[in-house]
Amino acid sequence: MHDTASIFHADLAVPAVIRTAPGVFAQGRRIRSLVFSTDLAVICHCDADAVLAVYPFTCQPAITQALVAASQRPVLNGVGGSITHGERCIEVALHSEMQGVAGVVVNTSIPIDTVEALAERLNVPVVVTVCADDAVAAWQIEAGATMVNVAAGARTAEVVSSLRRRYGDLPIIATGGRTDESIARTIEAGADAISWTPPDIRVLERAVMEKARRLAAEQLEA
């Protein structure tokens, strides 16, 4: 378990294989694992090195403030894409930077001129989520994206490998899949860090309740 476990009293440990990733750097820290969540209870009980906080709505400063305050580690915050772009995206990105995020994340549909404006006006990394090593990804990287977040489903390792061949030093975050084997393949393909999706909170609650019932039954039997 990571050293941060003692700080966060972590009950959710990211897969150990992620420790073999080289890592990306943000706020002076090496980041190998990112928990993909906006659930504060999950974030505070997970030993990931950082938080990848992306949600399908326009970024809200109150949510960003809560995430940064509760996480106690770098937060990469979603600021735009198909729903939020242009000047509105730039405004929320600047506000997020002032609130202390370690990077801003935009999705693959973000207009190129918005990427250029973000790269020009922000001091934190601009992370573009990509689904393929295609012309769109190339334009976004050339426009100033400083990291990419690969989310290509079953093709993630393939896309990571292609991007690594094309952009040797580009910091790459990627989804790792559900198994240690798929995470290892993604790292071997060239990913620097892995975003990990934790179990659904309802699944975790059910497991806790089942354990409580089992312990209660054992006490009765004793």
Q: What report would you give on this structure?
A:
By secondary structure, the protein is of the alpha/beta class. The longest helix has 21 residues, at 201-221. The chain has one domain (5-221): Aldolase class I (TIM Barrel, Alpha-Beta Barrel), CATH 3.20.20. It contains nine helices and ten strands. Residues 1-9 have low confidence and may be disordered. Helix 4 (86-99) links the parallel strand 5 and strand 6. An eight-stranded parallel β-barrel has the order 3-4-5-6-7-8-9-10, surrounded by six helices. It has a two-stranded antiparallel sheet with strand order 1-2.
The backbone outline, from C-alpha atoms, is: globular
**Broad CATH class:** Alpha Beta
Average pLDDT figure: 90
Order of the strands making up the biggest sheet: 3-4-5-6-7-8-9-10
What fraction, in percent, of the residue positions are helical?
40-55%
Which stretches of 5+ consecutive residues score pLDDT under 50? 1-9
Named CATH architecture: Alpha-Beta Barrel
Beta-strand segment tally: 10
Instruction: Count helical runs.
Output: 9
Major sheet: size, sense and barrel closure?
Answer: 8 strands, parallel, barrel
According to CATH, the homologous superfamily is Aldolase class I
Q: Whole-Å distance between the termini?
A: 34 Å
Integer count of domains:
1
Radius of gyration: 18 Å
Q: Can you tell me the CATH topology?
A: TIM Barrel
